[in-house]
Write a structure and sequence with these properties.
mainly alpha, two-stranded antiparallel ribbon, 2 strands
């Protein structure tokens, strides 16, 4: 709910805790749909029906375990909300009639022509992947970005970012509840993969839980710096506890990149501000909570050591996937291989890691699909955004520009090793990055 984020967090937690305790995890399917409808009805008077639908889509994206997807194509409920919203924004938007006269236009035409050619030449599974990417990946980013800007025009940035934070708070608290429930032996009611004592909230695996909390933490710190309200600092311990309990390597990497990016952006303005000390106090608190968990402490430490030493199956699979993918890209460096994906040949056998058109590494995926020209264009778009937003930060101390860079760097660091770029919440984060880069409505990025 816009304007009442803490009540919204409490309402979600209470409804789901009572409902799932009484009837089991499957009930979350019905509850999530009901809450999505409630979000639309509650917010439509303030921001309009279309933008309320966008808020509901962002909410429903946190429900992404297998039980929330349907058919072999893994369709989600929020797809039904996205399609009419996409038609609405395409009708009112001037993007296709007035393109910016810069490298973005060239990139748009390059990728557009490549996709059209692949629609003709790719096998059936490749054609279906193209349509899914266009509608539910690029379409979701476009729709959410437009709706976010429209909401900001009505309410300002703070209420919208508060909504983002409230979702992360719900996810974070629910994950901690899951961890406690698993320790108590009643985890099946609160977690789909309760046999894994690490929390996953309503996502398909722990990785997405931890990475979602990273961005929740960044949104909270942005609002703290924008408003100087110390309430936001109090949320940081919760996010960090959830991240530590998840023992997710990519989340730790993203936090490290946040610290490094903050340092360098401060260095550019010759005014370095250290992160709030409560962050470091919280790290100790999180470790204390794990120690308190007694019998599972050794297991978590062993798992953390395996992950940081890259000795686990997941890391070894990622390393092998990178080696195999580089070889395949070298086979067709100019034209690429397209969107086709064959599970028998495009999966690393031992770890189940996907390669090729579904690679966990964003850059290798783009190079595989579009060839090296596509990769170079992607690198240009990324570098251009970082340089432009950094320059705005240096010249005018624009906080949104600073966080556009921070969010983008965190997003890219995760997308080097996990397919955040193919994950529903990844579309939400990319739309938020575009919002921070240019929060004014009716401007093109």
């Amino acid at each position: 709910m816009l304007g009442r984020p803490y009540l919204f967090t409490f309402l979600n937690f209470a409804i789901f805790a009572i409902g799932l305790f009484l009837t089991g995890f499957q009930t979350s399917i019905i509850l999530s749909a009901c809450m999505g409808i409630f979000i639309i009805l509650y917010n439509r008077k303030k921001i309009g029906g279309w933008d309320s639908i966008a808020l509901a889509i962002v909410y429903l994206m946190i429900f992404d375990a297998d039980i929330y997807s349907y058919t072999t194509f893994k369709f989600r409920v929020w797809y039904l909300l996205l399609l009419p919203l996409l038609v609405h924004h395409l009708q009112r938007h001037h993007f296709f009639r007035k393109l910016p006269k810069n490298g973005y236009t060239f990139a748009f035409f390059f990728f557009g022509i490549c996709i059209l050619l692949r629609l003709i030449t790719d096998p059936l599974d490749g054609k279906l992947s193209i349509l899914k990417y266009l509608l539910f990946s690029l379409g979701a980013i476009f729709v959410l970005k437009e709706s976010f800007r429209s909401i900001v025009k009505t309410t300002g940035m703070k209420p919208l970012v508060d909504y983002f934070i409230s979702l992360a708070l719900f996810v974070g608290v629910w994950g901690i509840l899951q961890f406690g429930a698993n320790l108590s032996g009643i985890g099946a009611a609160f977690q789909a993969d309760y046999f894994n004592f690490r929390p996953s909230a309503f996502f398909s695996e722990t990785t997405w839980y931890a990475e979602y909390l990273v961005f929740g933490l960044l949104f909270a710190y942005y609002n703290f710096q924008a408003t100087h309200q110390k309430t936001y600092i109090l949320f940081l311990p919760l996010f960090l506890v959830g991240i530590v309990l998840s023992v997710t390597r990519n989340a730790f990497l993203a936090l490290a990149m946040w610290c490094m990016t903050t340092f360098f952006l401060g260095l550019l303005r010759t005014k370095i501000k250290p992160l709030h000390p409560l962050l470091f106090i919280t790290a100790g608190l999180a470790v204390g909570i794990i120690i308190y968990s007694s019998s599972y402490f050794d297991s978590l430490v062993d798992l953390l050591w395996q992950k940081l030493s890259l000795m686990d199956d997941s890391a070894q699979g990622r390393i092998e996937a990178i080696q195999v993918s580089i070889g395949r890209i070298a086979d067709r460096p100019i034209l690429g291989h397209g969107f086709g994906f064959n599970p028998a040949t495009d999966t690393i056998a031992d770890s189940g890691t996907s390669i090729g058109a579904k690679h966990a590494n964003l850059f290798l995926m783009i190079a595989y699909i579009f060839g090296l020209p596509g990769l170079l264009l992607l690198l240009y778009l990324i570098a251009d955004m970082i340089l432009k937003q950094s320059n705005r930060w240096i010249k005018s101390q624009n906080l949104e520009s600073k966080y556009a860079v921070i969010l983008l760097i965190a997003y890219l660091s995760i997308s080097m090793f996990a397919p955040l770029h193919q994950f529903p919440c990844g579309m939400f984060i990319m739309a938020a990055i575009l919002l921070f880069a240019n929060p004014k409505p009716n401007n093109i990025i």
